[in-house]
Design goal:
It holds the Pfam family SBP_bac_6. This is ABC transporter substrate-binding protein. Keywords: Signal. Helix content is 38%, strand content 14%. The protein is of the alpha+beta class and 366 residues long. It has two domains: 188 residues, 3-Layer(aba) Sandwich (D-Maltodextrin-Binding Protein, domain 2); 150 residues, D-Maltodextrin-Binding Protein, domain 2 (3-Layer(aba) Sandwich). Strands 3, 4, 5, 6, 7, 8, 9 and 10 form an eight-stranded mixed sheet that branches. The chain has a two-stranded parallel ribbon with strand order 1-2. Helix 1 packs across helix 9 and helix 6 packs parallel to helix 13.
Amino acid sequence: MQFKLLAVGAVSVLALTSAAQAQDMAALEAAAKAEGQLTTIALPHDWCGYGDVIAGFKAKYPEITVNELNPDAGSGDELEAIRANKDNKGPQAPDVIDVGFAFGPQAKSEGLIQPYKVSTWDTIPDDAKDAEGFWYGDYYGVMSFGVNTDLVENVPADWSDLLKPEYANSVALTGDPRSSNQAILAIMGSGMAKGAEPGKDSAAKGLEFFAELNKAGNFVPVTAKSATIAQGATPIVMAWDYNLLAWRDALNGNPPMEVVVPSSGVLAGVYVQAISAYAPHPNAAKLWMEYLYSDEGQLGWLKGYCHPIRFNDLSANGKVPQELLDKMPPAAAYERAVFPTIEQQDANKAAVTEGWDKVVGAAVTE
């Protein structure tokens, strides 16, 4: 990725100003309301502020029922849900997906998604979207550590610290590294911290790191969530900063939780949106995308500690409230962030999913 976190650039806004565009939007709204339903998948309410984002969409379009499938699913599960429901127009067929950056091209190549360019298309960075409109970036954050400071006296500052004996039975991922994008990219970050370039090398070094972590008895093969942090089952969790910050707020000091951006291997991760090629409610799906990429939808993600993909444009036009920026970690913490390319993520993903069992051999369970 070529765009920089918190950078501000002058980008023109493609607004619905002409009568023709307004008419098209009115027609889309009417068609979506006639369908009456939108089926989402893998959208936990504490992920990126999705609870409030979904509530905002419902408030704006009360005629459309939002059917939420499997909130804790991973990106691979989302694609499988489309494959499994190609001929199913019932409530188990997702209309839209929100997946890791590397899963967008995969879904396109398999014919699982359909193109649609939102009204604010021109304000999405070119290197964060498919030129034909099959998928487009929605938000990003950096891989960080969430630490239960009731149980961890010395907060780790970097990946290498996690190997210390004092962190026995303490370190966990947020999913299965064979299918969860967040877990796959945590492995990339750990490999980058060992000096590897993003891609196949970062996967090799990352798997080596996790093998060491597992052999040392520090790795906990449990899918970490805010509840497992609160229970003390996963005192240290590797996850996106926005998830950890949201969990910290929800825990409200019980237990106290610190969020740390590591000193090295600072990995920025972009997620993307797409519409299923077999969406039972295609117009509701398009309207959902219009909402997500509107100023209101983008700022909804920022409230959830995610940097929306249109952040530069919103900043350039003075549309980002300072109080939202004040709640984010200092900008300096992100200055070393690396945005891997699609090709690098694909290479890392393939090597991680194929090598996890052989190299690490720890089955991550719910």
